[in-house]
Design goal:
Length: 97
């Protein structure tokens, strides 16, 4: 456990590793949903990876800059990027068109 936050309240992120699992599932799910949507011109894996990781970078920057109770973490960004890579590697099994 990480312990209590500055307000003395326990949160769901206090469970060690749960925060990273949530990052992985959210960005994996985002990538999966993007691939399922019937776009006319689906971007290449490289472009889609760059766009989604860029989005993850912005989220980490914004939560550091715009909130007082959250901070961006490189490890969160790593889990986001790995989730995107895992789903993109399975792209041909997911999308059969």
């Amino acid at each position: 456990f990480r312990g209590r936050d500055t307000r003395g309240v326990w949160g769901w992120t206090d469970v060690s590793g749960l925060d990273k699992l949530v990052h992985f599932l959210l960005f994996g799910g985002l990538t999966f949903l993007w691939l399922l949507f019937p776009w006319r011109n689906t971007p290449s894996n490289t472009k889609l990876f760059a766009a989604l990781v860029g989005y993850a970078v912005l989220l980490e920057i914004f939560q550091t800059a715009l909130t007082v109770y959250r901070s961006g973490e490189l490890l969160d960004l790593l889990f986001d990027a790995v989730a995107v890579m895992v789903v993109l590697r399975m792209r041909k099994k997911i999308i059969l068109r």
